Design the sequence.
């Protein structure tokens, strides 16, 4: 499998951390320095995740003229915030882009680890079904499930989408921690309505919003990611010194810097861009890769990518450019 190119898109509406501090009562310096986010982008009320995903794909198509969308036979969309409960966003995106009807489309309901999982899924399908060209799209609009006054989430997350073109050439999950990053209501377990009746009026409205236990997520990451990284290196028969960049899910600046110190990784090999985008969930890794590609820093390089978060899930892989 060959990763041909990556592009991304963020909403035009940007919210600075001093404004988030006013919403939540947090110290602006804490938001900018400890969390590490100076600004983030949120969708407008009249925009949807598919609109943003379409922009990312069109950016990819426009700058990579040799990549003809008519050749695509696989579209994988990673999202936990689809436009509708059904149909799937990949079908909506296929129509919006005018892609051929012969294309296989499906969504992957994963968050922070979703991009790494999707690359492996696409690679497997391309090999078994003899698919020549595929598109992996990430798009999560957490602004749709956050409360403006929730200091645990709104200071951290931002909206973004990415598009990755793959061409063919001749993880793990611990569901016991699921409650640490969750939207409790709105799914089949706590539906808004069903054949059994409407949602109870006494049900708390914040059950429809994102809830996060930051300490539990931090502990999970520190326990799982180092082990996942070492197993990935061992399986590929390489050492840390043979990896040029370690691109981790951009969870928070504090978390990434702590992880890099624990793994004894040089700061210049662990790129961090969360200050400008916030935590964009499944789009964080491809956005980092897209920026490194645009700067010409990935040619001939070996990159370890590692995503971890909601589920709780994690995945690590090696990409050679």
Sequence:
């Amino acid at each position: 499998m060959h990763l041909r190119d990556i592009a991304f898109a963020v909403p035009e509406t940007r919210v600075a951390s001093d404004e988030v501090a006013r919403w939540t009562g947090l110290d602006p310096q804490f938001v900018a320095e400890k969390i590490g986010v100076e600004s983030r982008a949120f969708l407008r009320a009249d925009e949807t995740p598919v609109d943003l995903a379409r922009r990312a794909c069109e950016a990819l198509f426009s700058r990579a003229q040799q990549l003809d969308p008519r050749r695509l036979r696989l579209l994988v969309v990673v999202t936990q915030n689809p436009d509708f409960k059904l149909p799937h966003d990949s079908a909506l995106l296929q129509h919006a882009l005018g892609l051929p009807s012969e294309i296989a489309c499906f969504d992957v309901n994963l968050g922070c680890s979703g991009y790494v999982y999707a690359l492996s899924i696409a690679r497997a399908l391309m090999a078994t079904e003899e698919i020549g060209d595929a598109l992996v799209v990430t798009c999560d609009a957490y602004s749709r499930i956050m409360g403006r006054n929730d200091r645990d989430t709104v200071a951290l997350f931002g909206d973004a989408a990415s598009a990755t073109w793959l061409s063919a050439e001749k993880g793990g999950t611990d569901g016991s921690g699921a409650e640490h990053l969750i939207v409790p209501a709105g799914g089949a377990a706590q539906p808004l309505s069903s054949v059994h009746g409407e949602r109870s009026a006494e049900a708390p409205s914040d059950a429809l919003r994102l809830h996060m236990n930051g300490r539990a997520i931090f502990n999970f990451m520190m326990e799982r990611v180092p082990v996942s990284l070492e197993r990935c290196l061992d399986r590929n028969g390489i050492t840390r010194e043979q990896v040029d960049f370690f691109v981790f899910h951009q969870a928070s600046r504090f978390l990434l810097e702590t992880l890099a110190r624990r793994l004894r990784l040089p700061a210049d090999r662990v790129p961090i861009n969360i200050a400008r985008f916030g935590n964009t969930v499944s789009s964080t890794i491809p956005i980092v890769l897209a920026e490194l590609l645009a700067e010409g820093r990935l040619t001939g390089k070996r990159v370890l990518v590692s995503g971890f978060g909601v589920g709780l899930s994690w995945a690590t892989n090696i990409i050679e450019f």
Observations:
- The chain has two domains: 2-171, 212-320.
- Residues 232 and 238 are 9 Å apart (CA to CA).
- The chain is about 30% helix and 20% strand.
